[in-house]
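[Q] Does anyone have a clean C-alpha cell version of this?
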Amino acid sequence: MHIVLLEPEIPHNTGAIGRTCHATGSTLHLIRPLGFSTDEKSIRRTGLDYWTELDVRYYDNFADFLQHNPNARLFFATTKAKHTYTDVVYRPDDYIMFGKESKGIPEEILLQYPDDAIRIPMKPDMRSLNLSVSAGIVLYEALRQLDFVSLKKEGQLHHHTW
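[A] Here you go.
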C-alpha cells in the first residue's frame, strides 16, 4: 500500500504516519512543500529512529507525483467526499492521499477525481479527525480487506502462553 501526504505541515503527524507505514510495509510519499525538515538532525530530535528504514519518496508537487506514478490508482481522503472509505475494494498497490492539516486536499484536485474521493464518517459538527488517525483508519481497512498479507497476525505473551 501507499500513503501520500500532500504538503504535510506537522512533523509529529508525518512521523506517526511514517511509523504506521513502516509497521505495515507501506510506502510513504511526501509532496512538497513540507512544513518541517526531514534532515538527520530533525528526525533524530523527534525520535523517529525507524525513518532510515522507511520507504519514503519525495516529490516537488502534485504534478511531479503523477509523473513519477503514472499508473497509480489513487483515492483521496477528504471530508468533502460522497463515498466512505469502506465503499472501496482496495488492491495491494493502491495509493491513499491525505491533504495538509490546515486545508486538506485542494478542491481543484478533488474535482478531477470525484469518484475516488473518500471520507471517514463522523458527527456533523466535527470538522475533521487528526491526520495520523485518519491515515491509520483508512490504511488498516485496506489491509484488513487484503487479509493483512505479509503482516504478523498473532501476538505472543512474554511471561505466559496462550
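[Q] Thanks! Anything notable?
[A] The radius of gyration is 16 Å.
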